[in-house]
Specification:
heterotrimer; A alpha+beta; B mainly alpha; C alpha+beta; A: 5-stranded mixed beta sheet; B: 3-stranded antiparallel beta sheet; 59% helix; binds iron/sulfur cluster; binds FE2/S2 (inorganic) cluster
């Protein structure tokens, strides 16, 4: 285990650890462009040059790239010495020789490493008197990614990502010297399912996202820790929003789930948060305030269940909802409502791959399942269709407007739903079911509430509230608490903390029972 | 019948004094204040209102302001107490106007023969000088009735009335502030009440010395006392016998009128406009009008108590007397005989003899001049001194003015005791 | 590191200054002097400028109505970088960016609106603009408004006042 000294501080690291990693462990940030912890190390940008002190009596050594140099026993390293600072200034000046500095129109401005390092280490006027090399501007590399050759600093992070992470190898460096540019291979497009990760990787504004381009300046964004609800992987993300509108998703480093990445499809799912939202609670097509809606919904539910009996009452749990909502939903369905028929809703299955994307497009199916003892798990949706068509269900309470059926079955389901006596839909979005509902209750999405989600590997993650609820939306569990109170069978909790204490206990019991 | 006549006379006095004089001066003040401050700051002030191209030096702004005030929307904020919000400005103006009842614009009209005795005019029971000449020299002179035509109410407790009314005056402000349902207004109202209560104390105490010197609460009587000549030459005006009290009283009464440097209740840099933030149109106008009327009153009461009121220096009922020697001396036996008076009149002792009517006229003119000078002094102060801080105002009121007026009272009492 | 503090002595004030009375008298004398001088020698001492008839000479850097500068071909110079709307303390600049057909311009403001009623005429937007696209040197007074919506000056209105600006940004390009 080699020991070394960095800026006067001693550290012992594993064999093979590079100086940049050791320095980071000590809290020294060595500026870098081409180095990325998840990619191979080409050491081509020379931004990370540091000074290694020579053995006594020897002349000063050449500066070494911190990203490539491995720590050796007894090494003495300076990351902020005069020579290092001078080298950094020189490297930056070199990179900027042909850089267009069009920060005003560059989406990266504000989170651009070149800008930051320039302000930190260079901050001098340009000495270049010749004109700059012009290169490709606004060149689409694929459906999602737009390339700007002038801003590219040729760090090859994007190329290495496609080679090493996705293995698709669409990108390469063409030409030589100051004419070098990034291009796709002839006849190919940067169209892999993770192509937008290159935009995150690009330290400058050379790669920009077609979707996010010019939508919002990054310094206006507020970032909230959340998860992507596109599939059951549940990638950790930064949910970035401005004026109560989500502007983009960006992967959040999570070594257990998604590391630094997320898929392109997942990045687009923020649109779902703003699409087709239910604006206010409505009973019989009449928009109401929440207190009124609680009263009338409870009255209708009570009358309908009394008329048709608990056996004709069905409750559909949604794997789109958070654990808190599902736990309250179970308490409500079994206790207050007394429904004996339980089903699982959610989105239909889709395609998956062997990296992040899973076929199950619902973020919390595992959370839903673990809410119930193994023998009392809700029935699949197909059964609901059968029971509906058999006329056994007269009262239907459904969470979420997603229907896990396709084609002809979907049409049959819609026709059957239109026939029930009372259909309560509690969902963020209207979709096809909204117009059919007798009672429509707006629900908050993952962006508007705190919630727990269990991913395909059984890892639970918590989301934070980023947006103010859109329209009259409320977290579903709050609605269940209120409705149960109106039905005179109140749930045992009224605060999220009480709910969570109970919920985690139940989840632990169920998962222990399932494991044994 | 006589009651009816008296009533008619009283009504006439109210009309002439309150509406002919007080209101006129008050509304003129709205323009004067702006003009005066403008001139002090080398500006023109309001000059732009014009009719057919004539501007009359800005006089038309009086009309323009009035029209504007009346035509503007009368706004009452939601949540305000409508009744009190409406009554409050009226209360302010009402108190400012009724307080003028005690101001004497000239001495009571003498129906007989008025002659000065040791600096105070007495009204002897002879119709005129000829009637005096034909009277028996040995007859004891009687006194004729006087009529207070130049004072609305000749109250023997005049000063107490003044304190009572100024005490009520704060209600208009405080209620107006409270009823507006606005934080600024409420703060303004609270400040006004705190300030008025604090300064009323020293205002009253500063006048107590004057009461002891003149031995009366009757305002007209106090003015008459000021006609006496000190050492036979100098009129004994309040400012001479109580110089200290004058400054205390002036300070306290400016504070009472809530004007700079004591305008904490409306402090526009902190409270928007304080207690009248939520007032508009004529109600706002009435608030500022009552403020100006208060200024006129302070001018009048200062002139009355400290600058000899209607007294023209050395002018007495029969003309100018430049020394006390030329006047009647006090009667030795407690009363004069007609003979004593005859010899006095025959010798025509006034240095410049004047008819009684002219004397009264001169006195009214002199009083008005004094009021105007006192108003000018107040304007000068208002446009010179910056606003105090709130704590400074409280400090000044309780820790400086109050002890100072107590000391003043004590010294006065001591002096009176020693000189008797 | 402890903050640098400098302890300031309060200036000593004499009893008479503290008592305030002589100063009041001084003050009254000063204002009275001005009053008398104004009344006696009006013409030479008056400061009033009778505005619509007489006008003051505006200083060179007077901030008038905003204007948006244009390129050689008359297109708007602004590239919708949002620097001005970010710095604007009154939050009165609203910009929506869009992709320009010309790749060398790349970005332009599809919507650019200034709420002149909200503007506090601080000039920070002009300072912030990296492209010499917004200026306040039009010398034009903001007109008066009776309707709030007429105070929203849009891109084309603002460009009407604008002129060609030759400022270069980012340096020259070759081949
Ligand atoms: S890449 Fe960075 S430095 Fe270059 S134009 Fe974009 S923001 Fe500016
Ligand atoms: S496009 Fe970005 S990531 Fe790719 S080489 Fe250029 S600078 Fe590096
Ligand atoms: S002048 Fe100031 S307030 Fe007005 S638009 Fe510019 S930055 Fe905003
Ligand atoms: S700062 Fe200049 S270029 Fe940027 S948006 Fe404002 S006006 Fe346009
Ligand atoms: S980061 Fe080390 S050379 Fe690029």
């Amino acid at each position: 285990m080699p020991k070394c000294t960095i800026n006067g501080q001693a550290i012992e690291v594993d064999r093979g650890v590079t100086v940049i990693q050791a320095a980071a462990e000590l809290g020294f940030d060595v500026p870098h462009f081409c180095y990325h912890p998840a990619l191979s190390v080409p050491a081509n940008c020379r931004m990370c040059l540091i000074e290694i002190e020579p053995p006594p009596g020897r002349p000063p050594m050449k500066l070494q790239p911190a990203c490539y140099t491995q720590v050796a026993e007894g090494m003495v390293v300076q990351t902020e010495s005069e020579r290092v600072l001078q080298a950094r200034r020189a490297v930056l000046e070199f990179i900027l020789v042909n850089h267009p500095v069009d920060c005003p129109i560059c989406d990266q401005a504000g989170e651009c490493k070149l800008q930051d390092y320039y302000m930190d280490y260079d901050a001098q006027a340009s000495r270049v008197r010749t004109s700059k090399v012009s290169k490709a501007k606004v060149l689409p590399l694929g459906p999602e990614v737009v390339y700007d050759g002038e801003r590219c600093i040729l760090c090859t992070r994007c190329v290495r990502f496609c080679d090493e992470v996705t293995g698709t190898s669409e990108l390469t460096v063409t030409e030589r010297g100051d004419r070098s540019e990034i291009r796709t291979f002839a006849g190919r497009e940067l169209d892999n399912a993770y192509s937008l990760c290159t935009v995150d990787l690009c330290p400058v504004g050379a790669l920009t996202s077609r979707d996010f381009r010019f939508k919002c300046r990054v310094w206006l964004l507020t970032s909230t820790d959340s998860i992507c609800t596109g599939c059951s992987r549940g990638c950790s993300i930064h949910l970035e929003h401005h004026r109560n509108e989500i502007q983009r998703y960006r992967p959040r480093f999570n070594p257990e789930i998604n590391e630094y990445w997320m898929c392109d499809a997942g990045r687009h799912t923020y649109n779902e948060v703003h699409r087709d939202r239910v604006q206010a609670p409505a009973v019989g097509g009449q928009a109401l305030t929440w207190p009124r809606a609680y009263e009338q919904t409870a009255a209708r539910l009570k009358a309908a269940v009394e008329a048709h009996g608990a056996d004709a009452t069905a409750f559909v749990f949604s794997p789109q909802a958070a654990c808190e909502d599902l736990y309250a939903a179970r308490g409500f369905a079994e206790g207050a409502l007394g429904a004996t028929r339980h089903y699982v809703g959610g989105r239909p299955e889709g395609a998956g791959d062997d990296f992040l994307i899973t076929p199950d497009k619902n973020p919390n199916r595992n959370g839903l399942l673990v809410m119930f003892p193994r023998d009392r798990r809700p029935a699949p949706f197909q059964r609901l269709l059968a029971d509906l068509e058999a006329g056994e269900i007269k009262v239907l309470y459904m969470m979420g407007s997603e229907i896990p059926l396709d084609g002809e079955e979907r049409a049959r389901f819609l026709a059957a739903v239109a026939k029930v006596d009372l259909f309560v839909l509690q969902a963020p979005r209207q979709d096809e079911l909204g117009p059919l509902a007798h009672v429509l209750l707006p629900a908050a999405t993952h962006a508007e509430k705190e919630g727990t989600y269990v991913n395909c590997d059984g890892i639970a993650q918590q989301t934070r509230q980023g947006l103010q609820p859109i329209g009259g939306a409320l977290p579903e569990w709050q609605v269940f608490v209120q409705l149960a109170r109106r039905l005179e069978k109140p749930l045992a909790y009224s605060f999220v903390k009480q709910l969570r204490d109970e919920m985690f206990k139940v989840m632990e019991e169920n998962s222990a029972a399932a494991a044994s | 019948m006589t009651l009816l006549i008296e009533f008619a006379i009283a009504l006439l006095k109210v009309l002439v004094i309150v509406f002919g004089f007080v209101m006129a001066l008050g509304s003129l003040m709205t323009l004067t204040e702006r003009k005066y401050s403008a001139f002090m700051q080398k500006r023109w002030g309001p000059i732009r209102a014009e009719v057919l191209g004539f501007r009359f030096g800005g006089l038309l702004h009086l009309v323009a302001d009035g029209v504007k005030m009346i035509l503007k929307e009368d706004f009452i904020p939601s949540g305000a107490n409508r009744n009190i919000h409406t009554i409050a400005p009226a209360m302010g103006l009402f108190t400012a106007m009724v307080i003028f009842a005690i101001i004497p614009f000239a001495d009571a009209w003498c129906t007989g023969l008025a002659l000065p005795v040791e600096g105070m005019d007495l009204c002897f029971g002879f119709d005129d000088a000829e009637a005096l000449q034909s009277a028996q020299p040995a007859a004891v002179a009687t006194f004729a009735p006087t009529h207070p035509y130049f004072q609305i109410a000749d109250l023997n407790a005049g000063l107490l009335y003044m304190f009572a009314i100024t005490g009520i005056g704060v209600y208009g402000t405080a209620l107006g502030g409270w009823a507006s349902n606005s934080k600024y207004s409420l703060l303004g109202g609270l400040r006004a009440s705190a300030q008025m209560i604090s300064y009323e104390v020293s205002m009253g105490l500063s006048l107590a010395g004057l009461l002891m010197v003149y031995g009366t609460l009757d305002v007209n009587e106090m003015v008459r006392e000021q006609g006496a000549l000190l050492w036979g030459t100098v009129p004994m005006w309040g400012i001479l016998v109580q110089p200290f009290a004058f400054f205390l009283f002036l300070t306290a009464s400016i504070a009472e009128s809530k004007r700079a440097p004591f305008d904490m209740p409306e402090a526009e840099s902190e409270l928007v406009a304080g207690y009248f933030t939520e007032y508009s149109a004529m109600k706002f106008g009435i608030f500022s009008l009552s403020e100006f009327v208060m200024v006129v009153f302070i001018g009048a009461i200062c002139a009355t108590l400290f600058f000899g009121g209607w007294q023209v220096p050395w002018l007495y009922a029969d003309g100018f007397h430049f020394s006390g020697d030329s006047m009647l001396a006090a009667a030795s036996g407690g009363a004069w005989t007609a003979g004593e008076l005859q010899s006095y009149v025959q010798a025509s002792t006034p240095d410049i003899a004047l008819p009684y009517g002219l004397v009264v006229f001169l006195r009214i003119g002199c009083f008005l001049t004094k009021i105007i000078l006192m108003i000018a002094l107040q304007l000068q102060i208002r446009w010179t001194l910056p606003r105090f801080r709130y704590d400074q105002i409280m400090f000044l009121g309780w820790k400086i003015l109050l002890p100072a007026s107590l000391i003043n009272l004590f010294i006065t009492a001591l002096a009176i005791l020693l000189l008797r | 590191m402890p903050a640098k503090t400098l302890v300031m002595e309060r200036g000593k004030r004499s009893f008479w200054v503290q008592s305030y009375l002589p100063e009041v008298a001084n003050g009254l004398a000063v204002t009275l002097k001005h009053l008398v001088r104004f009344i006696t020698r009006q013409e030479e001492s008056v400061f009033t400028i009778n505005y619509p008839e007489e006008k003051r000479q505006y200083p060179e850097r007077y901030r008038g109505l905003h204007r948006l500068m244009v390129r050689e071909d008359g297109q708007v110079r602004c590239v919708a970088c949002m620097c001005c709307s970010t710095i604007c303390p009154a939050n009165c600049i609203h910009i929506v960016a869009a992709e320009h057909d010309d790749a060398s311009i790349e970005k332009y403001p599809r919507i650019f609106v200034i709420d002149e009623l909200r503007c506090i005429v601080c000039g920070l937007c002009v300072e912030a603009c990296p492209c010499d696209a917004i200026r306040m040197d039009s010398g034009v007074h903001c007109h008066s408004f009776t309707d709030r919506t007429t105070a929203f000056l849009n891109r084309d209105l603002l460009m009407n006042l604008g002129t060609y600006s030759a400022a270069k940004q980012g340096g020259e390009r070759s081949f």
